[in-house]
């Protein structure tokens, strides 16, 4: 009995400990989920729905400390400059125009030198130090001297290339005239009574041209045929028929071959020997120039790397210049910083600056929201979806980041529309094998392939065959009506969610009227819910229902009154516009809902197309069957897969983003080392 009680006590303690651990893990998970929703996740590789909270900072410091402040801000990499026109008098001290111009000249010279010497190293800034104007001026002077040496070397290469080009042209001319056993010097010299024309004519025009020039009293000699052209010499008397002959030559597609200088006073053998000697001399000169290039690169490599480091350290101050203003020796610098980075920025400034400074922070005002940058999520798996979202726009500060929702809904719709284990595996494998070329989009392709495979198991389809795998649910063609109902429900949920997100986003950015009365606002959502409820009642009970009717009519009336108040013009014109806009609201929501039927329609199309290919293959022999199956599946993968991708993007952009995503924001671009930015004069 004692042992039993002891065992029960141990089991109770273990159960309590397990429950406590589960509670701790659950609490941590809920806390992280709340941070995710609030946008307070510290790790930028984790997805977030709401934007990272930002603060407007105002840094006041002595002007002579500006170079150190720029280094501190670049090291922190959390400061997005605010380039709004300053209210105070523009700062005339450093960096100033002289600093910017010297920096621009030095960087331009360094880029040209690096191009000539083929330098590829991009060093880190190394130990931070202040780069003043005197340092930049000295660097610019050194680079100017080195640029003169490099430009002379480049000019020598250019002259050598020009000589080689002339030599190749002379060789080509010699080859063209090699089969013409005449004195080229005589052909080139002008005579009083004879005209000579040497050139190319399309092969099919030779006979016609020969007859035409004969009428003009000229002779045509066909001395070489190469590819689709014939080399000809036309000889005839000079005189009044020159203009007539010129029009004939033009209509026949005649192209003149000029006789270059230097090949008319030597035999072909002498010319070939001369060409070989000149080629050898040019190669020797090129080898000497390449050696000079190697010596110059070796001699100045470290100097150029040091120059790059100096420019990396000077660049932050030049980039900040449009954001700097102040009075006399006091400088003021404004920008946007994530709330979580304020203290780190303050500590870094304290470690770098030698003179007192003040850092003021405040939350963005409602009027400033369009100016506040949005910090993106740097998640490797979501990177390709983020790229597709950016094609539509950047979330405005305060709006929900659509990337996680876009990724989930995109994969669900693609998988349902292209559900097949075999085809999905091919897509995923192709994306994996091409990951070096696809880069971030390799994850996108593999995710789409996996989604297709999962829905393939749901439908029991592998390369269009539906009897090899047991379906977890049902094949698409088994009950098309049910599949269409599922797509319709999916579309309704998608539209309601998109409208709800749009209402939240407008509230978040302070657009209260838009959240209530704008297209896809709260009143529109109430109309849609009432419309759906009335439609359900009509289908199941035979009547629309009182309350759904009241909600629909009330919503439409509210929208009509709102539109009427914002219109100007004759009463009849206003009535027509209001009627059309109100009718458009009904039609848009109905058509948008039915638009989602394509989700199931394409899954049915996929199955039907596979059946058609197998039916065609069964009508052929063994070899024809194999070829038909291979080409048919390739057709499904390339054509249907591409169409499905386009249709999913259309649903996302038009039915989703247009309802809840403005795309009017701009991305957080903090000051950091090594980012080349456009200089402002």
The low-confidence runs, each spanning 5 or more residues with pLDDT under 50, are 36-42, 675-681
Strand content: 5-15%
Largest sheet, strands/sense/barrel: 5 strands, antiparallel
- The dominant shape is extended
Distance between the termini: 92 Å
**With helices defined by DSSP (H or I, 4 residues minimum), what is the helix count?**
21
> What Rg is obtained from the alpha carbons, in whole angstroms?
38 Å
What is the number of beta strands? 9
**DSSP helix fraction:** 55-70%
- The helix/strand series, from N terminus to C terminus, equals HEHEHHHEHEEHEHEEHEHHHHHHHHHHHH
Specify the structural class.
alpha+beta
Mean pLDDT: 82
Family: Belongs to the V-ATPase 116 kDa subunit family.
Transmembrane segments: 405-434, 441-463, 483-504, 516-538, 544-564, 609-639
Membrane topology: Multi-pass membrane protein
Subcellular location: Membrane
Q: How would you characterize the overall build of this protein?
A:
This protein is of the alpha+beta class. 62% of the residues lie in helices and 9% in strands. The chain is built from 21 helices and 9 strands. It has helices at residues 2-38, 66-76, 96-117, 133-177, 184-188, 206-215, 242-251, 268-320, 342-352, 383-390, 403-417, 421-433, 435-438, 441-459, 480-508, 512-517, 522-540, 546-565, 571-595, 597-618, 622-660; strands at residues 54-62, 80-81, 194-202, 219-226, 229-237, 255-256, 324-327, 330-338, 357-362. The strands form 2 sheets. Strands 1, 2, 7, 8 and 9 form a 5-stranded antiparallel beta sheet that branches. Strands 4-5-3-6 form a 4-stranded antiparallel beta sheet, with helices on one face. Strand 7 (324-327) and strand 8 form a beta hairpin. The longest helix has 53 residues, at 268-320. The N and C termini lie far apart (92 Å). It is a multi-pass membrane protein. This is V-type ATP synthase subunit I. Its main location: membrane. The chain crosses the membrane at residues 405-434, 441-463, 483-504, 516-538, 544-564, 609-639.
């Amino acid at each position: 009995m004692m042992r039993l009680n002891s065992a029960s006590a141990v089991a109770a303690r273990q159960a309590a400990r397990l429950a406590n651990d589960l509670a701790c893990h659950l609490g941590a998970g809920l806390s992280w989920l709340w941070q995710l929703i609030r946008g307070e996740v510290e790790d930028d590789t984790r997805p977030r729905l709401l934007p990272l909270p930002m603060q407007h900072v105002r840094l006041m410091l002595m002007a002579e400390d500006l170079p150190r402040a720029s280094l501190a801000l670049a090291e922190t990499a959390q400061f997005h400059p605010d380039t709004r026109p300053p209210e105070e008098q523009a700062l005339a001290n450093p960096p100033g125009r002289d600093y910017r111009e010297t920096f621009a000249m030095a960087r331009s010279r360094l880029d040209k030198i690096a191009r000539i010497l083929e330098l590829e190293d991009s060093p880190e800034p190394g130990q931070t130090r202040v780069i003043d104007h005197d340092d930049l001026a000295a660097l610019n002077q050194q680079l100017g001297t080195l640029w003169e040496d490099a430009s002379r070397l480049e000019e020598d290469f250019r002259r050598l290339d020009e000589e080689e080009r002339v030599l190749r042209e002379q060789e080509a001319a010699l080859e063209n005239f090699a089969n013409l056993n005449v004195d080229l010097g005589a052909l080139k010299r002008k005579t009083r009574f004879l005209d000579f024309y040497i050139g190319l004519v399309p092969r099919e025009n030779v006979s016609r041209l020969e007859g035409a020039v004969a009428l003009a009293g000229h002779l045509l000699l066909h001395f070489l045929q190469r590819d689709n052209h014939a080399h000809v010499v036309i000889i005839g008397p000079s005189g009044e028929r020159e203009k007539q002959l010129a029009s004939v030559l033009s209509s026949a597609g005649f192209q003149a071959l000029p006789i270059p200088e230097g090949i008319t006073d030597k035999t072909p053998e002498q010319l070939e020997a001369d060409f070989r000697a000149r080629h050898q001399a040019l190669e020797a000169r090129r080898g000497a120039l390449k050696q000079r290039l190697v010596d110059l690169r070796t001699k100045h490599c470290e100097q150029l790397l040091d120059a790059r480091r100096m420019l990396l350290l000077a660049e932050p101050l030049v980039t900040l210049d449009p954001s700097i203003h102040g009075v006399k020796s006091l400088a003021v610098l404004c920008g946007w910083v994530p709330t979580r980075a304020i203290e780190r920025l303050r500590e870094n400034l304290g470690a770098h600056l030698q003179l007192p400074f003040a850092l003021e922070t405040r939350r963005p005002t409602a009027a400033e929201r369009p100016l506040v940058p949005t910090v993106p999520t740097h998640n490797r798996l979501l990177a390709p979806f983020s790229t597709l979202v950016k094609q539509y726009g950047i979330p405005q500060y305060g709006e929900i980041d659509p990337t996680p929702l876009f990724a989930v809904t995109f994969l669900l719709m693609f998988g349902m529309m292209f559900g097949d284990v075999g085809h999905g595996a091919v897509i995923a494998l192709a994306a994996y094998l091409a990951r070096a070329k696809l880069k971030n989009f390799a994850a996108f392709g593999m995710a789409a392939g996996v989604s297709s495979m999962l829905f393939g198991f749901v439908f029991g389809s592998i390369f269009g065959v539906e009897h090899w795998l047991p379906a977890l649910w049902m094949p698409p063609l088994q009950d098309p009506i049910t599949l269409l109902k599922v797509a319709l429900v999916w579309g309704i949920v998608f539209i309601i969610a998109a409208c709800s997100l749009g209402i939240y986003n407008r509230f978040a950015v302070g657009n209260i009227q838009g959240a209530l009365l704008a297209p896809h606002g709260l009143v529109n959502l109430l109309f849609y819910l009432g419309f759906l409820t009335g439609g359900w009642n009509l289908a199941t009970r035979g009547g629309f229902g009182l309350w759904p009717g009241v909600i629909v009519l009330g919503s439409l009336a509210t929208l009509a009154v709102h539109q009427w108040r914002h219109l100007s013009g004759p009463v009849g014109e206003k009535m027509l516009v209001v009627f059309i806009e109100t009718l458009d609201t009904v039609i848009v929501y109905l058509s948008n809902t039915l638009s989602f039927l394509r989700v199931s329609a394409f899954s049915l199309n996929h199955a039907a197309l596979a059946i058609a290919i197998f039916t065609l293959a069964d009508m052929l022999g063994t070899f024809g069957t194999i070829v038909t199956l291979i080409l048919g599946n390739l057709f499904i993968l390339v054509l249907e897969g591409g169409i499905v991708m386009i249709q999913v993007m259309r649903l996302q952009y038009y039915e989703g983003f247009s309802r809840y995503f403005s795309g009017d924001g701009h991305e957080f671009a903090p000051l950091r080392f090594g980012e080349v930015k456009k200089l402002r004069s």
